[in-house]
Structures are given as C-alpha cells and as structure tokens.
Amino acid sequence: MLPRLTVNQGRKTLSEWIEIPTADGGIISAYLALPAQTPAAALVLVPEVFNVNDHIRAVADSYAADGYLVLAPDLYWRQEPGIYLPYDDEGLRKARLLWAALDVEQFAIDVGDIVAASRARADCTGKIGILGFCIGGTVAYLASAKHSIDAAVSYYGIKIDEHLDRSDHLQCPILFHFAESDAHIPLETVKPIAERASASERMKVQIYEGAGHGFNRQGYSQYHEASAQLARERTLEHLRRSMN
Fold first, then answer.
1. Helix (DSSP H) and strand (DSSP E) numbers for the chain
2. Residue 162 contacts by C-beta under 8 Å, 6 or more apart in sequence?
3. Which entry of 134, 150, 172, 238 is annotated as an active-site residue?
4. According to the model, what pLDDT value does residue 96 have?
5. Contact assessment for residue 51 and residue 85, using Cβ atoms and an 8 Å cutoff
6. CB–CB of 43/114 below 8 Å?
7. What is the pLDDT of residues 81-120, one digit of tens each?
8. What SS3 state is found at 241?
9. Over the stretch 66-82, which tens digit does the pLDDT of each residue have?
10. In the annotation, is 184 catalytic?
11. How many CB atoms lie within 10 A of CB 152?
C-alpha cells in the first residue's frame, strides 16, 4: 500500500501499513504514521477493542503531527488479522467476541517485538513510548513492566487494579487517565491504583470529572471535549519529559 499524506492542523504526516516480524515467527501489521522531521522518538499506540479503525488511525496521525513516529499494531493479529471495527452494534458485537479470546499477556509480550523493530529504524532516535486506550491501556501498563520503554500512558485501562503487583517492575514513568463516571471502571477500582501511585515516583493518576469511558473518542457519543483536551496536554507533557 502506498504511503498516505495527512494534514493535521496544518501539519503534514505520511502514513502506511507495515509488517513487523515476531520472535515466534509471526507477522504483526501496524499502521505507521511518520512525523515531518526524523529521526524522532517512537510511540507504540495500542488500540481499544475496536482495533486500528479510522479513529485510532486519526489519533496516530495527530501524534505524528506532534513529532512522534507512531506505530499502531493490529490488536487481533493472532486471531483475525485485519479486523478494524466501526462504532456500531455489529462492530461492538464482534469486538466483544475478539476481546473475550484475546490473550492480553501475550500481546504485552508481543509489544517487545514492536519496540525492537521501532528502535531498529533509522528514523527513530531510540526513545520509545507506549500509549493505549481501554484494553490497550491495560497492555500499555503490562508492557511497561516487561520491556525497556521510556514512557507509558494508559487511557481508562481496564482491570489494572487486578495487576497492581506489576507496578513493582515498571521500567518507566506511567500516566493513568481515568474517568469519573466510567461504567466499566468504577472509582472504587481506581482508588487502589491511586493509592499505589501516591507511594510511587513512577505512577501518576488523573481523574476527569464529568467524563465517561471512551472520553477521548472524538466524534462519538462518549467524547468529552474538555477532558480529552486536558488529557492530551498532560500526555504530551509526560512524553516530552520522559522521551526528549
């Protein structure tokens, strides 16, 4: 597939699909969005359950416009590669089936191959961050405790409270974004994460008033503009502090 030119807020980025080999002989497809200037720090963008659909590709393009080399890998490459789902009833039904069968721990391991491939690129500085949404936010957390990564960001990562022991092995600073009114992640499950973060120099939790799950999903009913903009500002500050 030929590279695609995208203009985001007046800034041009190029994007294309690439293939990343894995240690066990597989191939991960990933959407690659390139910044205007390289070499640049890389950002692994792990999607929510709908996978690398139009919205996630737009998010990748936007971070490329901010100067990052962004790779958004196919979340379901071991199950049904190339399934990128719309935000409708059928897309949700299919996403739930794929999510139920997803080996999240294995995908967090696969991130190591994506990190290695990113670092090996001539247009990468060697600095690597990871950012994920929903189940991707969980992957970002798990991967940051497994691999040599410079910064991590988790947007409304689910069931992180069930894996708090991993925080003892974090390889980098991680920023968590949670919504005040998230039906999937009630505040009582965020509380132990925030308590652990208060005693850690590598964890920070931000909670967004009036927002619900998926508040960063621009153009859809869950979108909460004020929270999305503030979370993005905090994310960029976190990445720049740890990766520049």
1. 6, 9
2. none
3. 134
4. 96
5. yes
6. no
7. 999 999 999 999 999 999 999 999 999 999 999 999 999 9
8. helix
9. 999 999 999 999 999 99
10. no
11. 32
Domains in the chain and their CATH numbers? 4-243 (3.40.50.1820)
Task: Please give the helix or strand (H or E) that residue 141 lies within, else none.
Answer: helix 135-144
Cβ density class 178-201: b for 16+ within 10 Å, e for less: bbeebeebeeebbeebbebbeeee
DSSP character at residue 214 = T
Among candidate residues 150, 31, 158, 27, the one with its CA nearest the CA of residue 84: 31
The pLDDT of 115-137, averaged and rounded, is 97
Which one is catalytic: 61, 113, 182, 224?
182
Tell whether the model's pLDDT for residue 179 goes beyond 70. Answer: yes
And the tokens for 60?
């990748």
103 CB neighbour count, 10 Å cutoff: 11
User: pLDDT (tens digit, 9 = 90+) per residue, 8-54?
Assistant: 555 556 899 999 999 999 999 999 999 999 999 999 999 999 999 99
pTM for the predicted model, two decimal places: 0.94
Contact 66, 45 (CB under 8 A): no
Contact 215, 222 (CB under 8 A): yes
- Pick the catalytic residue: 55, 147, 213, 224? 213
- Residue 182's pLDDT is 97
Is 163 known to be catalytic?
no
For residue 6, is pLDDT > 80? no
Place of tokens 């190339």: 82
**CA dist., res. 130 & res. 97, Å (int):** 25
User: By the 8 A CB rule, do 14 and 3 touch?
Assistant: yes
Answer yes or no: 182 catalytic.
yes
